[in-house]
Design a protein that fits this description.
The protein is mainly alpha-helical. The chain has 16 helices and 9 strands. It is about 55% helix and about 5% strand. The longest helix has 20 residues.
């Protein structure tokens, strides 16, 4: 994480209210907004007025997100959003929360001993907190989580760590976001690539350029062969983070992951609806439409274009997807129509949908700032 760039980003948000949606062909942010009066700035008054601009919308989403109950993977993705936003106090606070609920080496355990991969999802933020604060509790916690990863026997015969909690032997597309970025942040580059490659072998369909959701390794068959949209979004965003953190000495591995992300984007974008949404199972129009995959792909595109490995032509669909997400934020800061709680079988709300709105907007602002 580049602190200088992040501090600049925070300044950018405060001064400019985030990146205008018009930069990528969507709705523009109103200019010459009136200053807030004293009544509007009183505690508890944030939601009594209409949304003013992108900055105001982001603040509302942030407040709503913090109020939502979170499981291990949700704690991780929310913390990552705050880290990338430059909201270091909040990110470190969430990392400390994960440490407070660390059991048997695993972060953020609420009930029972959580899956290794989901518990690892906050790992990059914990490592950041260790470096930023110097408090040994964070490094100790990260080391204990890494020891679980290194020593677990809960994996396939070819070394793929199961995404599901013991004793279930499940391989899910969600995994690509949860564990590999922590491994890379911890310097375990080869293991991260190994896990990504292994999960691709089990779940990826070359012809369709999409991941199935679940493989049951006990029965040696798919538990859910569907191309779940959010599962593909987790994979795209996870590999995007890994690409960013891989060292220059791993140029070939990075090139391969870039190809994986590009192919996955192409596989998903074939199914983008005119309204900027995707169906929950992307190639099955009878399933409900939702917006979180749109946010996840837009985030991946903005990061890829800024880094120079995605062509700017991807910004057109990213703009459509971003506008769809912004249009679904209500006055209370909730992002409507994401694949939602509690069972992710309906269009509703979810902490991960909140987090990916923030990640998407941060990535958009970073891209806009770099073009100035």
């Amino acid at each position: 994480m580049n602190l200088e760039n992040t501090n600049s980003r925070r300044h950018f948000f405060k001064k400019a209210g985030g990146l205008s949606l018009g930069v990528i062909g969507s709705a523009t942010v109103a200019a010459g907004l009136p200053s807030k009066n004293k009544e509007e700035t009183k505690p508890g008054k944030l939601f009594t007025r209409e949304i003013l601009d992108t900055r105001d919308r982001i603040e509302r989403v942030k407040v709503a997100t913090l109020g939502m109950q979170r499981y291990d993977w949700e704690q991780g993705v929310v913390a990552q959003a705050f880290l990338e936003m430059g909201e270091f106090d909040l990110a470190i606070s969430l990392a400390r929360g994960a440490i407070l609920r660390q059991e048997k080496g695993r972060f953020s355990v609420l009930k029972g001993n959580g899956p290794i991969s989901d518990c690892s999802s906050i790992g990059e933020v914990v490592l950041f907190a260790a470096k930023e604060t110097g408090d040994p509790v964070f490094q100790k916690g990260a080391d204990e989580m890494l020891e679980v990863i290194r020593t677990t026997s809960h994996k396939t015969t070819d070394g793929m760590i199961y995404h599901t909690q013991e004793p279930q032997k499940g391989i899910w597309s969600d995994f690509n976001y949860m564990l590999p970025p922590f491994l890379v942040a911890a310097g375990e580059y080869r293991e991260a690539i190994k896990q990504i490659e292994g999960y691709r072998k089990y779940l990826y369909h070359e012809n369709d350029k999409l991941y199935s959701h679940m493989w049951d390794d006990t029965r040696k068959q798919f538990a859910r062969v569907d191309y779940w949209g959010v599962g593909n979004g987790w994979s795209a965003a996870g590999m995007t983070r890994v690409i960013k953190m891989l060292p220059g000495s791993m140029a070939e591995e990075k090139k391969k992951l870039i190809l994986y992300v590009r192919d996955l984007l192409d596989g998903c974008l074939k199914y983008l609806r005119n309204d900027g949404l995707f169906h929950n199972v992307v190639n099955r129009p009878e399933t409900f439409p939702e917006v979180n995959l749109s946010q996840m792909l837009a985030y991946s595109i903005f990061r890829g274009v800024k880094a120079g490995y995605l062509d700017s032509s991807y910004l057109k669909p990213a703009g459509v997807m971003r506008k769809a997400a912004n249009d679904r934020v209500d006055k209370l800061g909730y992002v409507h129509d994401v694949c939602g709680l509690p069972n992710f079988d309906r269009s509703y709300f979810a902490p991960e949908g909140q987090a990916f709105y923030l990640l998407m907007e941060t990535a958009a602002a970073d891209l806009g700032d770099s073009k100035k």
